Amino acid sequence: MLELTSNYTSPSITFFLMGIPGLEVTHLWLLVPLSTMYIVALVGNSLILTVIWVDSALHEPMYYFLCILALVDIVMATSVVPKMLNIFWSGDGIIGFAACFTQMYVVHAATAVETGLLLAMAFDWYVAICKPLHYQTTLTQQTMLGISVAIILRATTFMTPLSWMVSHLPFCGSLMVPHSYCEHMAVAKLGCADHMPSDLYSLIGSSIIVGIDVIFIATSYSRILQAVFRLSCRDAQLKALSTCGSHVGVMALYYLPGMVSIYVAWFGQDLVPLPAQVLLADFYLVIPPTLNPLIYGLRTKQIRGRGWSILKSCLPDQAN
Prior knowledge:
Layout: E1 14-17, H1 27-54, H2 61-90, E2 94-96, H3 97-130, H4 135-138, H5 141-167, E3 176-177, H6 184-188, H7 196-229, H8 234-267, H9 274-297, H10 301-314
Parallel strand pairs: 1-3
Antiparallel strand pairs: 1-2
Helix pairs in contact: 1-2, 1-9, 1-10, 2-3, 2-9, 3-5, 3-7, 5-7, 7-8, 8-9
């Protein structure tokens, strides 16, 4: 196997992504599900972006946040999946210094932006269900812009110091990264200096961001459920509960694998095999972008109808 080592830190050095250590024989088998999920993520999120862009009736706060979420999902999946597919297909895991740390920054910043967007969408739905008369005055264009800027600033403020700390570590030994992408803890452990400050920063920062967001999201959905159970129409209750349940399910698939991956890397390395840790981290970045357009977009009547019209217009006329 290729063994890369370094005696210095320089933008000219290269890392080698190992894929899933210990499960190299499964790399080819993983190509099919990974490729399928990536295609679904690209097509689904691109369709949502197109539908919202061309239909002026969808230029509302809810769809505005959904549009940003679709864009973030495309960026997050595209930053890792093409390289993963290359590794699984050809074994070519070589990645340059700048490319590795760019990927690290984009991946972790995108996940921080996504959790903020999920909170914003929960707040939007809370206002729509519980404060419908105040919806237009609460979620103005200025408010949406302020929320969006705050989400992006929080993500960049969190990621910039972390990327700086890891990228300034001296790398004087093996450059074999036991992962499918440049996950910051996997890369930091290759450094010759103490990487504990960056690890602690990541653990504390992620816990604070996710903890705050989950608390407010849970509060929003609890208020929404209270309002739903007060509805007199049984059909309206069931529809709202179905929507709420699907949203909570997607959020669980987003938050649980991510936080489990972080805490296992800290406290459960001896309990969870490394291949399982890597698989968990890999699919954490692919499953949400795949499911988000299906749950948040295609379950929405307006987007589903308009999207189907766009797809039909792209198909050749069968009558000819």
